Amino acid sequence: MLDQRTIPMAGADLDETDRQAVLQVLASSRLAMGPWTEEFERLAAEVAGCRHAVAVSSGTAGLHLLAVCAGLAPGDEVITTSFSFVASTNCFVYEGARPVFVDVEEDTGCLDPRLVEAAITPRTKAILAVDVFGHPADWDAIDAVAARHGLTVISDPCESIGSTYRGRPMGAEGIGGSFAFFPNKQITTGEGGMVLTNRQEVAEACRSLRNQGRGQTGAWLQHERLGYNYRLDEMSAALGASQIKRLAAMIERRAEVARAYGEALAGDERIQTPRVRPDVEVSWFVYVVRIDPAYDRNAVMRALAERGIESRAYFTPIHEQPYIVDRFGDWGGRLPVTERLGASSLALPFGSAMPPDDARFVAASLRQVLDQLARR
Ligand SMILES: *Cc1c(COP(=O)(O)O)cnc(C)c1O
Asked: What is the pLDDT at residue 221?
């Protein structure tokens, strides 16, 4: 079929203002550590409703710096979830800490706070929870159990820029969190991230750590600690500053696409659409449905691909990744909700640049594919 269109998973939403912002940097000649980084940080702190924002080179880099700030060291255990993108576990494995996976809430896919207590050992140092697909974790319950046991909380809001939990914007829960700006996220800088925190000492440490461990005085060849080159360049920061000014509009467009999917898929018992708790507002990162286990989710993906529609198995659980099994053993069977979600979740094409009509077309195609596939 020559005229068949392809509907991609996601596409960056760039406009002329974004392009002009980047060109302005190129016309200046100050390409790193300049005013755009500061401006982007100011705007990001506003969005996250927190005191400090520190721009970094990726979401993963930001999470890694928070693991360093938490003082995690070899032998420490971190309670976290496996239904996530690998970076939320890698960020503390870099420091030699071990993941202790707990299962997730059936409706949100986020860490289930009721399971934390049973996972605590004398080596437990921290809890790292993820706002999955933009839906905030149950932060008050997580903070309460962490406070009872003297544990540090780290948040991963890489997917939840613009979401709120009980009226609080996501970003700086716990000692802090990091946004991510890869092109599939709500806003993009190409590659980039942003640490958000209300703690001065965390912000200062992150500013030093991202800049090769240099001190506050900025002396170029004085290094106070083992640091990294996790800086964000000015072209990326200018793009981020331009994009974040349009965040509210882009979130609204994503919500429109999510509504189009929700309406087109409503009432089909083979497809469970995302659930949103009443005390949160979700900034949609992806649109993930769950396919009735009577159907082979991977066969659904293949059939969609034949119709030119991309889709993804979001997430393949972290504990099923080969290197995690090699290092930390086989967690198979111990995380039943995570494994069920991992086997049935299907992310559909999504984004603020996607016309709602494309969502209706994808939804209709998904229903046709299920009509044609045999139940197992
Ligand atoms: C995207 C993402 C990250 C990592 O962000 P990068 O900028 O790609 O390094 C971390 N955690 C979660 C949950 C993510 O979705």
From this structure: 84
Nearest CA owner, ligand 1 atom 6: 59
Distance in Å, CA 180 to ligand 1 centroid: 6
What pLDDT does 346 receive? 98
Indicate the SS3 state at residue 250. helix
How many angstroms separate the alpha carbon of residue 86 from the centre of ligand 1? 8
C-alpha 127/C-alpha 125 separation (Å) is 7
Residue 85 beta carbon below 6 angstroms from any ligand 1 atom: yes
CA gap 134, 352 in Å, rounded: 14
Atom 7 of ligand 1, nearest CA residue: 59
Average pLDDT over residues 240-245: 98
**What spacing in Å lies between the alpha carbon of 158 and ligand 1's midpoint?**
5
**Beta bridge partners of residue 99, listed in sequence order:** 78
* pLDDT, position 4: 67
> Is there a contact between 65 and 58 (Cβ–Cβ < 8 Å)?
no
Q: Which atom of ligand 1 is nearest to the CA of 182?
A: 7
What is the pTM assigned to this prediction? 0.97
3-state SS, residue 214 = strand
Residue nearest to atom 10 of ligand 1 (CA): 87
Query: Token pair 């946004």 is at which residue?
Result: 179
When the pLDDT of each residue in the chain is averaged and rounded to a whole number, the result is: 96
**Predicted confidence band of residue 2 (pLDDT cuts 50, 70, 90):** very low
